Amino acid sequence: MQASIHAVVLPVAGLGTRFLPATKAIPKEMLPVLDKPLIQLAVEEAHKAGIKHVVLVTSASKRAIEDHFDVNFELESTLEQRHKFAMLEAVRSTLPAGMTLSVVRQPKALGLGHAVLCAQPIIGNQPFAVMLPDDLIDDVDGGCLADMVTLYNQQQAFSLAVEDVPRDKTDKYGVVSLDAAGKIVAMVEKPKPDVAPSTLAVVGRYILPGDIFDALTAVKPGAGGEIQLTDGIASLLASHHFRPHRFKGVRYDCGSKLGYLQANVALGLRDAEVGQGFQAWLSDINK
Ligand code: G1P
């Protein structure tokens, strides 16, 4: 039996230009949905999946992300002196108990595939997960990644989270096509709608074999002149079995303003503290 999935790679080196000027001095992954930054929601989903090791692929302007998961001695001792124990716990548990964090730099923005390749010295040749924190998957039952890890642990199946998108949006995603048995047989990065092999788009959750690193070392720059994770996966499809994972729950594209607002509304409506008041206010302004 092969190893289980112990590590997740979170590529967070991107500039976040779609949210400027908000992201001029803070990383886009630190934008909050309600009271937790996107990066923390991703780490919590990984924790639910039983993953112990978080590997951030980061860049010089992203130190706030590392700080978020580190001890903040001054803040913690102040909260302790003031007996603000619930807040203290919230501050201390940004990195869930039992998880460790490693950080590696992506020196140049050469693409998502290149970012994942930067994690090779830490991951080695083990199967691992990749999560893109922009894609918030809201699944009250558990978590998208937990289901994918379970599938791997039970059947050694590599998988990619997928959902159907409108045909005019295929050029924003990696798009897969399946054979009659449901196995992924092709994958293309950001195809134009008229040449897209299907409308089944990959969203930001992957369970990948360690062999992806050799594949990424070999691929040439693809869409947008970047080293694409999609092209690395595509080159493994003949030798490895990848399954599409049609996840439960709703995915919000928090890399876009609309998706980010929708995520805040969805989680806000469910929030124990503000949910009821928010619901009442929303019904009021919609009259
Ligand atoms: C990346 C991947 C793409 C995937 C998408 C999901 O694109 O390259 O294959 O479908 O994430 O969000 P990006 O959104 O970084 O352009």
Q: How is the biggest beta sheet arranged?
A: 9 strands, mixed
Number of helices: 11
Number of folding domains? Answer: 1
Classified in CATH, the superfamily is Spore Coat Polysaccharide Biosynthesis Protein SpsA, Chain A
- Unique ligands: 1-O-phosphono-alpha-D-glucopyranose
Radius of gyration from the CA trace? 19 Å
Describe the structure.
The chain is of the alpha/beta class. It has a single domain, classed as Spore Coat Polysaccharide Biosynthesis Protein SpsA, Chain A (Alpha-Beta Complex), CATH 3.90.550. Strands 1, 4, 5, 6, 8, 9, 10, 11 and 12 form a 9-stranded mixed β-sheet that branches. The radius of gyration is 19 Å and the shape is globular. It binds 1-O-phosphono-alpha-D-glucopyranose. 1-O-phosphono-alpha-D-glucopyranose (G1P) binds next to strand 11 and helix 9.
Short description:
With 287 residues, the chain is α/β, with parallel strands linked by helices.
List keywords for this structure.
287 residues; globular; two-stranded antiparallel ribbon; 11 helices; Spore Coat Polysaccharide Biosynthesis Protein SpsA, Chain A; alpha/beta
Question: How do the strands and helices of this protein lay out in sequence?
Answer:
Blueprint: E1 7-11, E2 32-33, E3 36-37, H1 38-48, E4 53-58, H2 63-68, H3 73-81, H4 85-92, E5 100-105, H5 112-117, H6 120-123, E6 128-131, E7 135-138, H7 144-155, E8 158-164, E9 174-178, E10 184-189, E11 200-208, H8 212-218, H9 229-234, E12 242-246, E13 250-253, H10 257-270, H11 275-285
Residues 112, 132, 135, 173-174, 189, 201-204, 229-230, 255 line the site of 1-O-phosphono-alpha-D-glucopyranose.
